[in-house]
Design a protein that fits this description.
single chain, Mannose-Binding Protein A, Chain A, five-stranded mixed sheet, binds calcium ion
Length: 76
């Protein structure tokens, strides 16, 4: 994976029906939350890097499209 110079990246993870799910609807079985996260009341998630530590942070969905995005595709 190539790291790009964006501090916060939307990863396609969203809280739906009280479960964290990828945008294809599949459940996220284990989420490596950033320390102190999820803080709650925020229904989308980003990859957060601060001081060399990485983790997932829940954020409000209204701002996710202003961030960089990390996507994956299935190769067949
Ligand atoms: Ca949060």
């Amino acid at each position: 994976m190539k790291f790009i110079s964006v501090e916060r990246i939307y990863i396609g993870l969203k809280l739906s029906e009280e479960r964290w799910r990828w945008i294809d609807g599949s459940s996220a079985n284990s989420v490596p939350w950033y320390p102190g996260q999820p803080s709650g009341g925020e229904n989308c998630a980003e990859l957060l890097e601060e001081g060399g530590s990485f983790g997932i942070n829940d954020i409000v969905c209204s701002g996710v499209w202003t961030k960089g995005a990390l996507c994956a595709i299935k190769l067949t």
